[in-house]
């Protein structure tokens, strides 16, 4: 039981350090990535997809997403994004991934964003991106 508590405390400490590191180093990259994606153009979306995502998402699916989200307009702010400690802990046993979730504002609305990034060849790519509770004004 004590071993389990020590392990949990260690993971909590580790994920806290990871949150600080990614907040400092990855957040600016994430904002630039989101700004680029919010151009709602297929090439911009495609260039930011991970290998895994790129192999399963067709151009037709991307075009459908673009048509759905283009009315939101360009990203204005992503100040409310929160780092997921769980994804950080899971990265200990697999590829380096980070997850952020929270509300984002666009020129013509807002939405709840959940985005998972994966590190490949020393760059971050979108592994999963979900917009929900979309409100177009």
What string, H for helix and E for strand, traces the elements in order? Answer: HHHHHEEHEEE
Strand content: 25-35%
Class derived from helix and strand content: alpha+beta
The coarse overall form would be: globular
Rounded to an integer, what's the Rg over CA atoms?
A: 16 Å
Task: Tell me the span between the first and last alpha carbons.
Answer: 53 Å
Q: What is the helical fraction, as a range of percent?
A: 40-55%
Number of strands: 5
What value does the average pLDDT take?
82
Q: Please summarize the sheet with the most strands.
A: 5 strands, antiparallel
Ranges where pLDDT stays below 50 over 5 or more residues in a row are 85-92
How many H/I helices?
6
Please outline the helices and strands.
Elements: H1 2-25, H2 27-37, H3 42-47, H4 51-56, H5 59-69, E1 75-77, E2 82-83, H6 85-90, E3 97-106, E4 109-120, E5 123-136
Antiparallel strand pairs: 1-3, 2-3, 3-4, 4-5
Q: What keyword list fits this structure?
A:
137 residues; five-stranded antiparallel beta sheet; globular; alpha+beta
């Amino acid at each position: 039981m004590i071993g389990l508590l020590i392990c949990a405390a260690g993971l909590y400490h580790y994920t806290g350090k990871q949150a600080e590191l990614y907040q400092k180093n990855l957040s600016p990259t994430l904002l630039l990535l989101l700004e680029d994606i919010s151009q709602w153009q297929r090439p911009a979306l495609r260039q930011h997809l991970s290998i895994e995502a790129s192999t399963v998402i067709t151009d037709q699916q991307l075009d459908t997403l673009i048509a759905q989200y283009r009315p939101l307009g360009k990203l204005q702010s992503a100040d409310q994004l929160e780092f997921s400690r769980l994804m950080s802990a899971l990265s200990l046993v697999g590829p380096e991934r980070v997850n952020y979730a929270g509300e984002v504002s666009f020129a013509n609305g807002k939405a709840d964003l959940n985005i998972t990034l994966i590190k490949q060849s020393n760059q971050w790519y979108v592994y999963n991106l979900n917009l929900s509770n979309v409100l177009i004004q």
